Each structure stands twice: as C-alpha cells, then as structure tokens.
C-alpha cells in the first residue's frame, strides 16, 4: 500500500508584482528627444542668448558711438552705481511708481472690477455693448491709441471741446500734468483685461452661496464684501501682478503722447532707459537701468504673491 502524498496548500491566483511607474528619464532617449532639438535651439538663441548678452552689457561701457563702440571694457558695477546716484534716474523711478499706482493698481483694477460686477447684473444687450466698447480700446495698436489720446488731450482737442460745453476753461494736461494724462490713457486702453479676469472669476462663484446669504438677510454690499471679495482673492492677486508688470514696461503710449516731457515730467523708466541707450548711445548703462526695472517688477510680484491663499501657491 503506497503512502499518501501530502496535500499542497490551496493558493490563489498569482498576482503580478506591481511595476514601478516609469519616469520621463526612463523613456527619454536620443531618438525620441531629436524632434525637440530645434525648439531647444530656438529657446537658447532667442531667450537665453539675449538674457545672457544683456547681463554682459550691463557690466560694460558698451556704446553705439565713441570709445565704447570701438573698444568695450568691463566696468563692474559702475553702471548701477551711476544710476543709483543720478537724480534723473530717481525722478523716473518715482514717476514709474506713480504711473503704475494710478493707471494699474487703482485705475484698471478698480474700474475693471466695477465693470465686471455691473455686467453680471446687466441684461445681455447692455453687457455685450459694454464689452465691445472696452475691448475695442484694448485691441487697438499702441501707436493708434497713443495718437487718439494725444488728440483728445491736445490744445483745442476733444477734452477742451467737452469742457467748453460746461463752461470750464481749456486744460493743457499734456503740459501741466502729463503723468495724469498718460495714466488716464493707460486706464482707457488696458481696463478690458482686468474686466475679463474679474468677469471669469465672478462667473465661477457658486450662485447658491449668494442665495443663502441673501436668505440670511445680507444686503448686496454685505454679500460683496463678505463673500464675493474673499472668493476673488486669487483673481485679484493674479490680475494685479499681471497689469503691474505690463504697466511697468509701457513705452509706446507715453513716447507718442509726451515723449517723456515736458522737462521729464512723464519720463518713466522705460523712456529713461531708451534715452540713455539710444539717444545718448550708452548701451551698457541703458541695459543696467533695464535690469533695475526688472528688479522692481520682481519685487512687486513677490508682494502680490503674498496675497494668494496658501492653497493657490502649491
């Protein structure tokens, strides 16, 4: 009688071992990366190249004419120290900050929010009309917008005609307060962007939140300050950062309307940089001013990033 073989324990189906998720480096081969080489070359040539060359110029006495044109020398931080000790540079810094505060932080931001709120409550026809008018000013080329606003503020222009109808004497804002005139022009041209940003953000707010607050007795102003504004905080910070960076670099509008004058009363940093680099031919010094303007924009961006909720920063 043969011995009985021991029974094998019952086992379930064999499960395959989980595979480690493949990363980009596991699959990126030279053959697969070859189509990206032209794009990488273009990025290096047209982005990294100019950035590196600008950093180089800022530390040299490179010029369009004179000794700096024939022989470029390394001057260290002399361009930056010259700028920081130049009264015209600080005049341009103050005017740039003033221009940005008036036209972007206050003008475009608040007017864009107001238009977005009004359009949310208006009927479709009025909303379409307002959107068309505001966006029409935005899509105009900067040169065209500059000449339109110049004729509006010029002596004997449209503004003087309107003021004459109500008995107010003509106002020569292009000469008496040019920074106010160019700030108004930038508000007129750029408000559409803020309006579209806030319109999209308002459309994303759940309607039941507003309805619940209204049922609890909250009025329109209370709902706006306690519900709408807190929910608009990410859009507010993003819009402020974008319009501030755009306004810091405005050149054509001011150049066409005032040329930075009279007597440098509207010469913001972009116009000061242009004057030094191309009118006076000091490319190295002008590039250093451009880098200082870049630092101002970076500092403003850091301030606005502080306004973002913590979950939006991740």
TrEMBL record:
<keyword id="KW-1133">Transmembrane helix</keyword>
<comment type="similarity">
    <text>Belongs to the binding-protein-dependent transport system permease family.</text>
</comment>
<keyword id="KW-0472">Membrane</keyword>
<keyword id="KW-0812">Transmembrane</keyword>
<feature type="transmembrane region" description="Helical">
    <location>
        <begin position="93"/>
        <end position="118"/>
    </location>
</feature>
<feature type="transmembrane region" description="Helical">
    <location>
        <begin position="125"/>
        <end position="150"/>
    </location>
</feature>
<dbReference type="InterPro" id="IPR000515">
    <property type="entry name" value="MetI-like"/>
</dbReference>
<feature type="domain" description="ABC transmembrane type-1">
    <location>
        <begin position="94"/>
        <end position="304"/>
    </location>
</feature>
<dbReference type="InterPro" id="IPR035906">
    <property type="entry name" value="MetI-like_sf"/>
</dbReference>
<feature type="transmembrane region" description="Helical">
    <location>
        <begin position="37"/>
        <end position="59"/>
    </location>
</feature>
<feature type="region of interest" description="Disordered">
    <location>
        <begin position="1"/>
        <end position="23"/>
    </location>
</feature>
<protein>
    <submittedName>
        <fullName>Sugar ABC transporter permease</fullName>
    </submittedName>
</protein>
<feature type="transmembrane region" description="Helical">
    <location>
        <begin position="231"/>
        <end position="257"/>
    </location>
</feature>
<keyword id="KW-0813">Transport</keyword>
<feature type="transmembrane region" description="Helical">
    <location>
        <begin position="277"/>
        <end position="305"/>
    </location>
</feature>
<keyword id="KW-1003">Cell membrane</keyword>
<feature type="transmembrane region" description="Helical">
    <location>
        <begin position="162"/>
        <end position="188"/>
    </location>
</feature>
<dbReference type="Pfam" id="PF00528">
    <property type="entry name" value="BPD_transp_1"/>
</dbReference>
């Amino acid at each position: 009688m043969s011995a009985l073989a021991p029974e094998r324990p019952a086992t379930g189906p064999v499960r395959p071992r989980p595979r480690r998720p493949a990363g980009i480096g596991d699959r990126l081969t030279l053959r697969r990366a070859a189509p990206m080489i032209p794009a990488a070359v273009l990025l290096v040539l047209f982005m990294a190249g100019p950035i590196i060359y600008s950093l180089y110029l800022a530390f040299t006495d490179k010029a369009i004419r004179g000794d700096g044109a024939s022989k470029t020398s390394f001057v260290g931080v002399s361009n930056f120290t010259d700028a920081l000790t130049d009264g015209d540079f600080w005049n341009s810094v103050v005017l740039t900050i003033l221009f940005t505060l008036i036209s972007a932080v206050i003008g475009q931001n608040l007017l864009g929010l107001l238009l977005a709120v009004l359009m949310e409550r208006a009927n479709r026809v009025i909303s379409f009309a307002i959107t068309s008018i505001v966006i029409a000013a935005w899509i105009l080329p900067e040169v065209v917008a500059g000449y339109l606003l110049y004729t509006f503020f010029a002596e004997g222009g449209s503004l003087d005609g309107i003021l004459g109808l109500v008995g107010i004497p003509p106002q020569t804002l292009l000469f008496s307060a040019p920074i106010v005139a160019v700030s108004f022009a930038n508000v007129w041209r750029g408000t559409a962007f803020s309006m579209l940003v806030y319109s999209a953000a308002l459309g994303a707010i759940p309607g039941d939140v507003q309805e619940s607050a209204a049922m609890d007795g909250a009025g329109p102003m209370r709902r706006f300050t306690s519900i709408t504004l807190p929910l608009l905080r990410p859009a507010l910070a993003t819009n402020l950062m974008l319009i501030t960076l755009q306004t810091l670099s405005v050149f054509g509008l001011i150049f066409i309307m005032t040329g930075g004058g009279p007597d440098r009363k509207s010469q913001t940093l972009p116009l000061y940089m242009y004057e030094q680099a191309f009118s006076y031919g000091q490319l190295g010094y002008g590039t250093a001013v451009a880098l200082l303007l870049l630092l101002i924009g970076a500092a403003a961006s850091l301030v606005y990033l502080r306004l973002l909720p913590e979950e939006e920063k991740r």
